[in-house]
Structures are given as C-alpha cells and as structure tokens.
Amino acid sequence: MISIKGLTKTYAGGFHALRSVDLEIRRGEIFALLGPNGAGKTTLINVVCGIANATSGDIVVDGYDIDADYRQTRSKIGLVPQEMASESFETVWNTCRFSRGLFGKPANAKHIEKVLKSLSLWDKKDTISMELSGGMKRRVLIAKALSHEPDILFLDEPTAGVDVELRQDMWNVVAGLSKEGVTVILTTHYIEEAEQLADRVGVINHGEIILVERKEKLMRDLGKKQLVLHLQEPLTEVPAQLANYHLELSDDGRGLTYSYDTKQNSTGITALLGELRSADIHFNDLETSQSSLEDIFVDLVHTDR
C-alpha cells in the first residue's frame, strides 16, 4: 500500500531527521512504528502525508507518486496528528462534515453518523469542540481523519493523555477498521498497545529504520525467557560458583532470576539446578516469563546508540 525508497529529510540547519529510509507497508495491516523521542517517527509520517517535503527519495501510495499524483495520494490518507488542533468554535458534526468536503467527497450523513457512533461521539455531535474534554477532542481528530473514508489511517500518538477507557474504545475502532481493509500505521508510547494490535513492528532510531519484522517472529527471535527461583532461605550475594549464569538477586535476597535464550540448543537450566543443589541452595517455587515487546524495544534502541 505504501512503498518508501531512499527517503531522506535534512533540515536547513543540517539536522538529518531521516536517513535513507526504505519501508513497505502492506495493504490492510496494522503497522506499529516505534522509536524514542526525536527518532524521526513524526517526520516520516509528515512526509508521506504531504505536510513536509522530502530532501530525496521516492514514495508511492497505492500505485500513485506522492508528488506527481498529490490529490490521489492525499485523498487516500487520513491523519490523526499529535497536536490537538481542531475547529474550536465548530460543532463536532460540522467539523467532520467540513473535513469530508475538503477531499471533494459528496455529503454522506450516514457515514459521519457511523463514525461518530463508533467513537462514542454521537451524543456530542452538536457540542462545540472547545467545550469537549481532552480525550473527546482526540476522538474528534480520529473522526475527522475517517470522515472522507480513507484507505490508509496514520495515528501519531493518538492516545497520549487519554484515559484507559477511552484508549480501549479507540483501539476497538482501529481493530474494526483493519478488518474492513483499512491500512493502519500507528506510533505510540504505550508499547503494550502495539503488542496487542500490530501485525508488524518497525523500529526507527536516529532517522534510520533498524528493524522491521512480524510481531510474533520478533518476540520469538529476539525475546528472552526468564526463570525466577523463590528461595527457601535468603542470600546476601550470589555464590561465586554461579557467576557464569549471570543471576540477578532480588532486593530481599529470596529470589534468583536467570535469563536464557530459547533459540540456543541448551538453555542451561538443568546445569543451573544442579549447581544450586551443589551449593546447598534450595527453592520453594519457580516460574518463567517471556520478554515483552517493550523489553525488546528497549534492548534494540539501547544497542543502536
């Protein structure tokens, strides 16, 4: 749906916001773009959406070049920006109706009604935007972006500052749009949302795409498992004979955590348990846990520094 090749963005002061970015977004997928502040996420979105100009590179949206076929590409895209810009003195209904008209779409009251109801905004349709709460204003931004029935929806930190209930409602809408064939690209600081929703994940840092992978494969290949042992008697330190296992001792001395790679031929667990017996260290219980997407993201960004 979106093909980006060699995309570079350099500002007048010499700052390289994007460095030769290559990226393919598939039709109908939910793609999560993750990266620390200043990594280039918003710049990338703004260039694709025609808000900022690229220094070099090519972008094709559903077969149309974003420069040569500006009207076609822009009409296919809905954007929910970070900024809370809205028509403060207009009603929610008129804001969405006007936004649809900007893209040359004929009036369609049934579609706008459907969008507002899906975002729990129907009872606010005659309310002036400036009278809405911050969370409701964010919903209006999404409603505006959907008013012209785009094939692609960009969500740039859409749930920042939104309470948990509103956030869940928004993601239900996003999941529904994906099922209808809309391609969704989102950036978020709530990485658990990407873990819950995304089909694929891309990580950007210092203006470069450092990884793009299916979420499940990413977590399987880069994730680590941890074995936590709950000790019968507390330790003051990890015995020297266990140093090769790089165990972490909990603050109360009653827990030992062993991290291991599931891709290795041997996890080392059997050997570790044998060493514990030799050291006369006994445990009451044990549990395992898998790395979250957030753990993997932090490791990737830290390694890329």
Summarize this entry quickly.
33% of the residues lie in helices and 27% in strands. By secondary structure, it is of the alpha/beta class. It folds into two domains: 2-220, P-loop containing nucleotide triphosphate hydrolases (Rossmann fold, 3-Layer(aba) Sandwich); 224-304, Alpha-Beta Plaits, CATH 3.30.70.
Characterization of this structure:
This protein has 305 residues and is an alpha/beta fold. It has 2 domains: 2-220, Rossmann fold (3-Layer(aba) Sandwich); 224-304, Alpha-Beta Plaits (2-Layer Sandwich), CATH 3.30.70. The chain has helices spanning 41-48, 70-75, 92-102, 109-118, 134-146, 164-179, 191-197, 215-222, 269-278, 293-304; strands at 2-10, 16-25, 30-34, 56-61, 64-65, 77-80, 152-156, 183-187, 200-205, 208-214, 225-231, 248-249, 255-260, 283-290. The strands form 3 sheets. It has a 6-stranded mixed beta sheet, with helices on both faces. A 4-stranded antiparallel beta sheet has the order 2-1-4-5. Strands 12-13-11-14 form a 4-stranded antiparallel beta sheet, with no helix packed on it. Helix 3 packs parallel to helix 5 (134-146). It is elongated and about 80 Å long.
